[in-house]
Write the C-alpha cells for this entry.
Amino acid sequence: MKYISTRGKSSAIEFEDVLLAGLAPDGGLYVPESYPQFTKEQVRNMRALSYFELAAEIMAPFTTGCLTKAELTDMAKQAYGGFSHTAVAPLKQIGNGLWVMELFYGPTLAFKDYALQIVGRMFDAVLKRTKRHITILGATSGDTGSAAIEACKGCSNLDIFILHPHNRVSEVQRRQMTTTIASNVYNIALEGTFDDCQAIVKGLFADADFREKYSLSAVNSINWARIMAQIVYYFHAALALGAPDREVSFAVPTGNFGNIFAGYVAKRMGLPVKKLILGSNENDILPRFLETGVMEKREVKPSISPSMDIQVSSNFERLLFEMLDRDAVQVSGLMEMFRYEKSYQVKQDTLNRIREIFSGVRCSDTETKAQIEKIYRAAGEVVDPHSAIGFAAAEKFGEKKVPSVVLATAHPSKFPVPVREATGITPVLPSRLSDLMTKRESFTVLPNTMDAIKYFIETAVKKDVE
C-alpha cells in the first residue's frame, strides 16, 4: 500500500513513513493510492469477530509491508484490553431507530483513545525496529492532547509536545494533559485559539530544516494512522445493526472533520453507510459550507463544546481531494486561496456530490443545553455537550428507514458545568480518575508566535540530549 499527498508534490511513500511523518512535505495530507475493498460476503463474515480481531482485519490492508495482521491483533488486544467496557465501543438503543455508540471507555474518556492507544503502539514498534527517535508535535482543542500523551508517555524513542489554547479547554481536559508528569512530555498553553495552535504546528512541519533536524511527527488527525484506526468502530456499529444487509447512518459531532471522514472511508471500503450527518457548535464553518459551497474562516467563538471551537477543519482537505476526483492541482490552489483569503468556493456539481453523503447541523450553547436536558428527560441518559450536538444532528437528518447511530465522543464528567446546568446532575469522574482535580500540573504558557514554540522545542530537546 502506497500513500500520496492531497497536494500532489510529494513522492508516494509506504505506511511506515506515513506513520512517522504525519503531514506531507508539500503541506498536504496523505491518503492511500486506493481504498481496500470488502465484498458483502467478507463484511458479513466480520460479524463473528471480536473488536480486537475486527481492528486487525480493517487495518491490515493499510499497513502492508510494515505491520502484519497478527501484529495488529496483538496491538489491538493491548490497546483495548484495558478499556473499562467489555464491548469496547458499546451500542445502546435510545429510541425508535436511534442508537448511541459510546466511545469514552478508554483511559482519557474520549473517542481519541480508540485511535491513539493503538497508534501509540505502532509508533513504539516501528521506532524500536528502526532505532529512530522522533519529536511528536500536536495541537489539541481538548481531547487529542490527553489521549496522545497517555499513548506516548514514557516512550524512550520519542518526545511529545502538545499545544492547547490557553483557558479555552475544560478544566478536566486540561488536567488530563498537564498532570501527566513524564520526562518526554511537554504541555504548552498557547495564548490563542485552537486554530492558532494548528497553524503553528503546520508551519513548523512546513519548515523543512526544522522538521528534518528534530524528526517531527504528528499524532492528531492529520496523521493517516489516526483515521485508519477510527474506521474500525464504524464497521463495529454497522455490523451489530445488520450490515452489510442493512444500511446505517451516523451522526457525528465534529470540528476537524477527522472522525466523520473515517466514516466516509468506511463507506468507500464497502460498508453500507446511508448518510453521514455532522454536528457543529456556533463555529459552524462546515454546516455553512454544506449550505453555500463556500468555506469561509471566521473568528472562533468559545463554547461549552470546546473540542469543536475550530474554524479550520484540516481533514476536509482529504474529502475535497476525493470529491475533485483526486485533482491535486485544484486542491492545492483552493488551499492556497484559503490560506491567504480565508475562503474558497467549490462548483455546484462538487457541492452536490458532497451533499449526497453529508448533511450538517449547528447548535448554539442554549440549544446544546436544551438537547442535553431533552435526552436526559426522554431516555435517562446523561451526555456531554459534543454528544448532545450529535443527537441534534440525528434528530434533524436521521431517516426512519435505516438506523441512525450517534457517536458519543466524550464522557459527560469531562464537562460537568454545562451538564449540571442542563440536568441538575453533576457527572462524576470514574474512580480511576478520582484524584485528577488535586494532582500537580505541569505546563508552560507561551505567546502565540511560531518562534516562541520553536525555541521552546529546541531548548527542551537539547536538554534531553545533554
